[in-house]
Amino acid sequence: MAYTVLARRxxxxxxxxxxxxxxxxxxxxxxxxxxxxxxxxxxTGTRGVGKTTTARILAKSLNCLSSDKPTTEPCLKCDSCVAxxxxxxxxxxxxxxxxxxxxxxxxxxxxxxxxxPARARFKIYIIDxxxxxxxxxxxxxLKILEEPxxxxxxxxxxxxxxxxxxxxxxxxxxxxxxxxxxxxxxxQLKKILIEEKIKFExxxxxxxxxLANGSMxxxxxxxxxxxxxxxxxxxxxxxxxLLGIPGSEKTYLxxxxxxxxDAGGTLLAADELINGGLSCIGLLDTLIQGFRDMxxxxxxxxxxxxxxxxxxxxxGLSKIAExxxxxSIVYDIALFEKLRWPVKNSDNPRAxxxxxxxxxxxxxxxxxxxxxxxxxxxxxxxxxxxxxxNSVIERPAFNQQQQAIPTLQQKQVLDGNCDFExxxxxxxxxxxxxxxxxxxxxxxxxNPMRLSGGMLALGFSAADEFTMQxxxxxxxxxxxxxxxxxxxxxxxxxxxxxxxxPSSQNQAKPKPRGAKTSxxxxxxxxxxxxxxxxxxxxxxxxxxxxxxx
Length: 549
Hints:
Blueprint: H1 6-9, H2 22-33, E1 40-44, H3 51-63, H4 79-86, E2 92-96, H5 103-113, E3 123-128, H6 135-146, E4 152-158, H7 166-169, E5 173-176, H8 182-196, H9 202-212, H10 216-229, H11 236-243, H12 248-259, H13 263-275, H14 280-299, H15 311-321, H16 326-344, H17 349-361, H18 369-372, E6 378-382, H19 383-387, H20 420-425, H21 427-433, H22 437-443, E7 447-452, E8 455-461, H23 465-472, H24 476-488, E9 493-499, H25 519-526, H26 529-538, E10 542-547
Helix pairs in contact: 3-4, 5-6, 8-9, 9-10, 12-13, 12-15, 13-17, 14-15, 14-16, 16-17
């Protein structure tokens, strides 16, 4: 006997069996009970959510021969119910709109519709993917939809309701089928596996539900494939091997390396995923999903049902999420989503992807427009910049919500009884011992200046003024103090100051207000690589240059 796939074998047979569409099932049952069944329905929704299944159940309910009138509980045993299930009923005609889309097909339908059903109460037309019909075919349907014979019922199903003309939709009762929730998908898969007497790991079912992305048919197809390829019990590992998808630990390693600003580690983690068979686009999709899950875990800590993750995955991802704040996560999601098209069409997709990964990992080293203009501190106005209200094209600063950066465990370099000279001598070793790589990179550019009453003054050169500003923002000073306390064994607080500042006498005098910028100054500013990139990005021109005080 030929094998019947799970999606067909466990297809819902009654309204109460339909998974995840309770409101629609209840409405249709009420319509049958009150004898208010419409002459035409439009079922919309993504693939595999129960549109055609519900259409068949409605057809069986209307035409069940074991009842003397339409019923909400078809018997499933009479000739009509059995024939509808197999798609062979002479009074329930299923039509594929993709292959019967022309006006001639609809004319044939209209000619046959005038004849009464052979044995049932109604002649029912189920047209799947109805949006594929031509404009002429839709126009041919209008008259019969407006004034249908009493014995005719139409049920249209489509995944793209926007392509169905408004004139057709206005003559139908529309039902929008929602995606199947992960919880409902998991429950149904477990029920089927128990009935099939197949052993499984709960984490494997959660992974299947995540991959199904709201489609029950996709979930059952993946389950069928997994059962055929693997022994028992069904595990996450066998699922990942079967489908060639990366394990969550590899994805989380990449996210962690990005979070701690480990440039080399980021590239190595990405390389491992790509060498494992993941395409550049697949890696982008994986990153977007990972950042999305982190965003939800941070924004809605008590509503973990919004993410389809195992408990171990939730715990691991929540820990990694501490390296990010919500604004930066939102920025990263938008950045990677915008990157999909360039990567897909690039001759060097990997280089573009890796550059973007480093852009995110080293975000603190990428300055805003005023900071980027650097030495001369130009303020450049472009036509496009003015349109954008001089908005800054940078990733939001780390921990903009004034959260302290989590300090990781690190080794102690000094014994706690040290003095300022010992701190100076061991400064390189101290900075390298700091577990939080981002903080370590910042203070490597500083020099200890003096120590007084537990207050350590750190000096930055004028060239590293921006790094000093980063150290002073968003709770980083406290995190740096804590990191140095762990490294030295003594309670330290930090202050920051600039050293070797240029004399104010050597600074150029500001341009008088209203004075016209010389062409020489504009040409000089336009030669800056940073400004060149800015003008290219905005497709603008320099219209003025001002020296900022």
